[in-house]
Amino acid sequence: MIVSVKAMTKQTVALIFAFFALISVFSCGNGRSAEERQLLQRVDSFVNTYYNSLYHEAARFVTPESMPQLRFIASQITQADIDVIHQNEEMLTYEVIETDIQKDSCARVELLLRNVFTIDTIGQPGSFRKELPSTLLLDYDKEKKLWFVRLNNDD
Predict the structure, then answer these.
(1) Which of 37, 30, 69 is nearest to 50 (CA)?
(2) Mean pLDDT (10-residue bins), the chain, 155 residues
């Protein structure tokens, strides 16, 4: 049987595509519930805005009660901090260590942040930390059907 290279290439591409589609079907969600997937999507959005000093955007992911603290944190960023942030070439990354959803209305998410900017409280420019453990507390808004981060004094 003679098969052209072009036909074989199409068959190979189709086989590879089918293989990866099958893998994604079986690994989709990694065994997580829809509720936990939505929680982790909100955590991802918050982490990538808040910890990249995009506080205006991070406001969409925090509880109304957290807004005064978020405004305060945003007001503490100085030009020296901005200069340090702009000089950084490494991206923020994070790892979810543990999630704990309690009574479908509150959750705790343990993270390990890497290459995260932290503000210095003594008047010096902030700096990047190689690793920083963090715990996020989230509340579920039943009307909006969304999770929101509850900032505490450690954030």
Answers:
(1) 69
(2) 45 43 40 88 97 96 97 93 92 96 92 92 87 96 96 70
